Amino acid sequence: MINTPLNQKLRGLYAITDPELLPEETLVASVEQAILGGASIIQYRDKHATEVELIRRAESLASCCKTYQTPLIINDRIDICKRVNADGVHLGQEDNAVKAAREQLGSAAIIGATCHNSIDLAEQALTEGASYVAFGRFFNSHSKQHAPPADLSILKEAELRIRLPKVAIGGINLDNGQSVLEHGADMIAVIHALFASGNVSINDIAKKAAAFQTLFNH
Q: Binding-site residues, please?
């Protein structure tokens, strides 16, 4: 686990994997390119893999992220986070999930909480020991099609009321990313706009990640 103090400011491109875009044979290489392009944090998210596949892929990603000193977050699975010595977890809205994760993973772990479009959920996450809160979806999304919509104004409200870094997710791309940051997001979570290859090569992931990172320089 990378020793990331809880009070360290989390900021930048938050890259999230998707098994439909990143099959196992290209997973690590694609994530490596995202890191080389400047991604600040990686989340391994896979809702359909078997237990054996999850562990194997998480171990490979943990090794890659450790090489580049980039935090690796595991989606939902505290047990796999501990097994592969990842840096933390991202959790949905199960009761006391953040509190349980903090108790099991310790004070240095990065623990994120999905808050959709709710300041109340963000305040609860703060109370339970979250490291950051995530709001969204803000735009039409390939990966978050069924998530409830969120208004960008919630980021400004959270900036006043929630003393935690804020992640924005859902349909964010290079065209709308700046508006999300202007409303107060500290990190922008990107899946499709970063890893959907189309007709480009895997090496273009680094270029796309670098382009996202430049948004934070404005």
A: 43-47, 75-76, 95, 114, 141-144, 171
